[in-house]
TrEMBL record:
Keywords, sorted A to Z: Iron, Iron-sulfur, Metal-binding, S-adenosyl-L-methionine
PANTHER family membership: ENDONUCLEASE/EXONUCLEASE/PHOSPHATASE FAMILY DOMAIN-CONTAINING PROTEIN 1, TYPE II SECRETION SYSTEM PROTEIN K
Cofactor(s) needed for function: [4Fe-4S] cluster
Radical SAM core domain span: 53-296
Highest taxon listed in the record's lineage: Bacteria
Annotated organism of origin: Qipengyuania qiaonensis
Name of the featured protein: DNA modification/repair radical SAM protein
Transmembrane segments: none
InterPro entries registered for this protein in UniProt: Aldolase_TIM, DNA_rSAM_put, Elp3/MiaA/NifB-like_rSAM, Endo/Exo/Phosphatase_dom_1, rSAM, rSAM_sf, RuvA_2-like
Pfam family, one: Radical_SAM
Length: 414
């Protein structure tokens, strides 16, 4: 077989990396190359984080070091039994690509993951070497996200955190039974043990930075993880419960969700078709409710339907409100911030505006309409000086009235 060019490797390994959703670059430390020192930046003019319609960050060079792998995870296109074209970068090739793309203003940093070659520690050393060359030899100050390997030597993972802005360890699946069935080479306790070690390192070095001026920073953008949705029988209630426990136990910056996608030569234990992408979206919405709206995991679980999954036709916040109509309507002139955040259609910014505005005068329905995008979804759940929903909140067909209307797309529409 003829030797592959760098361009051919890039085509293979960039495509292989598309299944990893956890590449957002928010929350990192501020660094720049002003004054002619170093290369790259994580801030300043011209730096923007572009996202694709499915929510994935597209401002980073996102590749695998290699798609060779000694593991045989059923859901992974790069598993050892998969019949795919293989490729492998050297650390220096990844460094050269990163710098070349950055100088052309195509990217703001690097997201690097890898299949497992030889063993976990060897592969982790190769990933760390890329970050070391960028930081130490080229004074690269852009963003670096390294996907770490839980089975690797903890000291090597620690080195990754000293060079990278963010590190992540995928839990892969929300249940131990699903992990045992679909990823027999992985161990849930080992994955969580590695995440706990990273959490402790972040806390220790953050404290050291407060006490010592030149203490090294460790993963200043924190750690994240990813779960695959729809590859096993786990319900949305299972996934939400797992995500909540991960946030609590490991101080994660984000939990990412990736809808299972059918792969070539798929194992017989996998579903024949992918779950609806809207299911992934609903999980992100539920994640947002827990992180910014004060919802508890049990609240989100109560919004699920009989099968344990969130409804696809309406968002989780509306689903919860329809199940607990006794909590409504909320008086916008007297309700607490927590009560207002539970009103479907009211976001964090709108609630803040309401709390500020009502200090000066009693709010009317028209005032609320000016503070929000659409008043239609909100009216059944609030009362104002001049509006009270009366029986509207209790209507049996309220869900159908508020659910987004399905539209038939035109093949030749203008």
């Amino acid at each position: 077989m003829p030797a592959q060019t760098v361009l051919q490797k890039l085509e293979i390994l960039a495509d292989a990396a598309k299944y990893d959703a956890s590449c957002a670059s928010s929350g990192t430390a501020k660094r720049n190359s002003l004054g002619g020192k170093g290369i790259g930046s994580t801030e300043g003019m011209g730096i923007c984080h572009a996202y694709a319609p499915d929510g994935r960050c597209i401002s980073l060079l996102k590749i695998l070091l290699t798609n060779h792998c000694v593991f045989d995870c059923h859901y992974c296109v790069n598993r050892k039994s998969s019949n795919v074209v293989r490729a492998r970068f050297t650390p220096q090739e990844v460094v050269d690509l990163t710098l070349a793309f950055y100088r052309r203003n195509y990217i703001e940093g690097l997201f690097l993951s890898s299949g497992i070659v030889k063993n976990s520690s060897y592969t982790m050393e190769q990933l760390v070497e890329v970050a070391r060359i960028l930081r130490d030899e080229h004074d690269f100050r852009g963003y670096i996200h390294l996907k770490t390997i839980p089975e690797a030597d903890p000291e090597i993972v620690h080195q990754a955190g000293l060079y990278a802005d963010r590190i992540s360890i995928n839990v892969e699946l929300p249940t131990d039974s699903g992990l045992t069935r679909l990823a027999p080479d992985k161990n849930g306790r080992q994955i969580e043990g590695a995440m706990g070690k990273v959490r402790n390192d972040i806390v220790e070095l953050k404290d050291a930075c407060k006490r010592f001026r030149h203490a090294p920073r460790f993963a200043p953008a924190g750690q994240s993880t990813q779960m695959i949705v729809g590859a096993d029988a786990a319900t949305d209630a299972d996934i939400v419960g797992k995500a909540s426990s991960l946030y609590t136990a490991f101080n994660l910056r984000r939990v990412y969700y990736s809808a299972f996608s059918p792969i070539p030569d798929a194992s017989a234990v996998l579903p024949l078709k992918r779950p609806p992408l809207i299911r992934e979206h609903r999980l992100y919405q539920s994640d947002w409710l827990m992180r910014f709206y004060g919802y508890k995991p049990t609240d989100v679980m109560e919004a699920t339907e009989a099968d344990g999954n969130l409804p696809l036709d309406i968002d989780p916040k509306l689903a919860w409100a329809l199940k607990f109509r006794d909590q409504f309507p909320v008086d916008v002139n007297r309700g607490t911030k927590e009560q207002l955040l539970r009103v479907p259609g009211l976001g964090v910014k709108a609630v803040g505006n309401i709390l500020t505005s009502r200090r000066h005068r009693a709010l009317r329905l028209d005032d609320i309409a000016r503070l929000t995008v659409s008043i239609v979804k909100i009216r059944p759940f609030i009362c104002t000086v001049d509006w009270r929903p009366v029986t509207l909140t209790d209507r049996a067909d309220l869900r159908s009235l508020l659910a987004p209307k399905a539209e038939q797309l035109e093949l030749f529409g203008v």
